[in-house]
Amino acid sequence: MMAEQSTRPVEPNDAGAERLRVFLVDDHAMFRAGVRAELGAHVEVVGEASTVAEAVSRIAATEPDVVLLDVHMPDGGGRAVLEAMRRSHPQVRFLALSVSDAAEDVIGLIRAGARGYVTKTISPDELAAAIRRVADGDAVFSPRLAGFVLDAFAARPDAPVADPELDQLTNREREVLRLLARGYAYKEIARELYISIKTVETHVSNVLRKLQMSNRYELSRWAADRRLV
């Protein structure tokens, strides 16, 4: 799953291995608890946050070595955290950890300053190894995600990844749009994102209004044209 095939898992008793200080940013408490439990033998988890404002304040206070950063949160997501922190605390390194493997999410986070991007299917040992590599200054991606980054920077190294229509949408609206375009029903989207069906309907209504479209089929074609699915 990791791009670097030589990466070996970090053992809790590796001789001379310094315990890295890690901060968790994710809006799902159960996921944070699971990551904290799985990484406890490898790193020192010095704090956690569920919102952008909490993350910015607590990261500044704890000054961790590496921040594990979710991409999509209701109040701006990982990119907002990166943009707030990168000038005031440039020594802190960020590793995106997300359910999303969409190209625009990967590229957007890397352009904002993340040192790597892995998905939540990663194993605990691989995640511990990825954290240490990021702390050492390496970039860490799964092979498919690394391809997105290489393609984007090689093709247009000086051009921002921007789409005026897409930029109208919030992170959560993009997430709902992507699942909708993949054929998910509203009930399935609600279950996947841990939100209510009513909230899904509201997001879809907002996306239709912002993009001036009338139905989910137009949205699906629009998303496919931009490779959001």
Automatic annotation (TrEMBL):
Q: Which residues form the HTH luxR-type domain?
A: 162-227
Organism listed in the record: Micromonospora gifhornensis
**Which residues get modified to 4-aspartylphosphate?**
D70
Question: What's the protein name?
Answer: DNA-binding response regulator
Alphabetically ordered keywords of this record: DNA-binding, Phosphoprotein
Q: Name one Pfam family in it.
A: GerE
Q: Which GO terms describe its molecular function?
A: DNA binding
Give the matching InterPro entries.
Answer: CheY-like_superfamily (IPR011006), NreC/VraR/RcsB-like_REC (IPR058245), Sig_transdc_resp-reg_C-effctor (IPR016032), Sig_transdc_resp-reg_receiver (IPR001789), Tscrpt_reg_LuxR_C (IPR000792), WalR-like (IPR039420)
Q: Which CDD domains match?
A: LuxR_C_like, REC_NarL-like
- Response regulatory domain residues are 21-135
Q: Which branch of life, at top level? A: Bacteria
